[in-house]
Write a structure and sequence with these properties.
This protein has about 725 residues and is of the alpha/beta class. It has three domains: about 20-180, Rossmann fold; about 195-260, Helix Hairpins (Orthogonal Bundle); about 295-565 and about 620-733, no CATH class. It is about 65% helix and about 5% strand.
Amino acid sequence: MAGTETRANVPVRPSASAVRAAIAGNPNSGKTSIFNHLTGTIQSVGNWPGVTVSRKEGRAFLGDREFVIIDLPGTYSLTAYSLEEVVARNFLIDKQPEAVINVLDASNLERNLYLTVQLMEMNTPLVVALNMIDVAERRQLKIDAAHMAELLGVPVVRTMGNRGEGMRGLLEACVDVADRDVRPGVQRIHYGHEVETEVRALTDVIASDAGVSDAYLPRWVAVKLIEKDEEVHKSIRAVATDVAAIDEAADKAIRAIERHFKEPAEIIIAERRYGYAAGVVRECVTPAGEGAIQDVTDQIDSIVCHRVVGPLLLAGIVYMLFAAVFKVADEWPWLFGRSPSGWVATFFERCQSAISPLGAKAPLLYSLLHDGVIGGVGGVMVFVPLIFVMFMFVAILEDTGYIARVAFILDRALKLFGLQGKSILAMIVAGGLGGGGCAVPGVMATRTLREEKDRLVTMLVTPLMNCGAKIPVYLMLIAAFFANHQAHMMFLMWALSWVVALGAAWLLRRFVVKGEQTPFVMELPAYHMPTVKGVLLHTGERTWMYVKKAGTIILAVNLILWAAMYFPRIDAGAVRAELVKANPGMSDADVDNGVAEIRLSRSIAGRLGTALTPLSKLAGFDWRTNIALIGGFAAKEVIVGTMGTAYAMGEIDPGTSETLSQHLAHDSDWNPVRALALMIFVMVYAPCLVTTAVIRRESGKWRWALFALAYTSVLAFVLAVLVYNVGSLFLAS
Ligand code: GDP
Ligand code: MG
């Protein structure tokens, strides 16, 4: 046989421009058949250096291009469990072939893809050979190779190794991959939020170690160390500048992962890889007939991901989650006669009444403590039970693996708007079902989204949902101006929020967060029973972050707002005298209210409200409304109360706002159109401060937090002006 040599490791004297292509794959996937067809008789057979694993190398040609083909040992994985695996892995790392042909048994795709995932992690220049395609077809499996190529980011060629079909396609793909240096990209495999956070932290440590990062791909090393791969650890020790730092970071990552999942880190990593492989199969393979359903997960998925049943089930689960969160945290008095939110609210009310003796003695200090400090902190803490319960349910759904399915069911529909399946969860948490919710946990829920652009857009549109704080504003205005159509108007506001949010997402995708949506594999991890400890730990951490960061911010802002409405403090006696003189018949209560109103109008906030009227009157808002809306920047909860104060109606709490409602209904400056314009403005404008702060943290950039403020405010203003002016035309005619 020409060129057959038996010495180990002797190349076939290729030309310098030859493409070195290694064949990798599971045993019996057809590697040797493909190798033989590619190389014909130009082969050399030997052993890998130092070990008794046989090695074959040969030459192939396509036009004037020359190839050196290496048949790697068959492996199921690239861990260090067997000699074959170590040989194959070291070859890929040390020799850096220009192309790696990964032969897959198409009739057993899911198991074969496990190796592919690991090759992708190494960012090898891959060409996938969908071999045994005839066997797959005989089993009536339809495989969408083009879609698979798109998902994996590498060429996929259908082959029949035993008959030599598809060999030319393979070589062409190898040339393409080698010449253009096509690689899957290091970020393509995603391990889910928790693991990913640790992988990234460890990657940073490794990347900053010049010794290691010169020799290896930092992210790959990070994953391998988390997998406790001894071989890799040994290699790292040989080249690292600071082994101790890397070891310490790796230990920390492993501990964090094991603490969260209560399972060895290497098992978690392996599971995520299988999840990825399962996702690819579900996306690209259409099984025909009943034989396709194999295990429990598949059986559950055939219901949960069903085209009709899936969405219905999802709607039911989401509705139940939503109802349960509000019932458990806010409505049911199950905790010693009160709801958890009720207890928090009561606590802060008690604090406020405890300091009431101060009111007469030190009015400034009293107002500062009563409205600024206790009111501010209480306003945030009241949400803590809601957020805790919400996070708990979301954590349970996440840990069981259901969230991954939700993404599946809704992905296609939401892609039309530049969002993705998992976006829906964030939007529902933020109030997308119409009855309340909060954008703060909503924005945090975007963590389950893995594609950065989709996540950003979701974050930016999530505050458009009708959160619990906007509802009192609607209720108050609807009672005043649409008393006969309350339910219809609430439904309209709900529908509008979705139209605006989806429209905004579409526009943002088109003009701001540009770029194709990269297709990616949605992992379908096996279903799991969540552990009580894991869920509570997870929930506690997230809630604490909310308390800590949001609490400090809203407290600071509340103090600023309080000061803006309090200062400069004009003398009450003089105002009162002036007022009584001008309106001799006025009742004492009216005088009190009048004094409060005048003081407010001359405060910093009052002047700001007045200064904004030239602009705000385009949408029909007066200075009082402006103050309330400025206050609403901090938290929408303050809008009704501030309007109440501003309309000299004394203290009005959002729950019993009839008096303000009645007042507005009788006010000749007000009409239904103005009310509708205000409702739409409140729906769309500026995410509250806590949400803005959370957007800043979750996006990592102030830029996006400020952008969220700016674009929603402009959009809200444009919509309000439009509604007000068009509506006024109708009203006039
Ligand atoms: P290796 O272990 O990966 O080197 O696999 P082999 O090349 O030795 O192939 C294992 C078996 O599968 C052999 O009997 C081949 O003839 C057969 N085979 C390889 N490719 C195909 C294919 O595309 N279709 C079918 N039906 N059989 C194949
Ligand atoms: Mg073989």
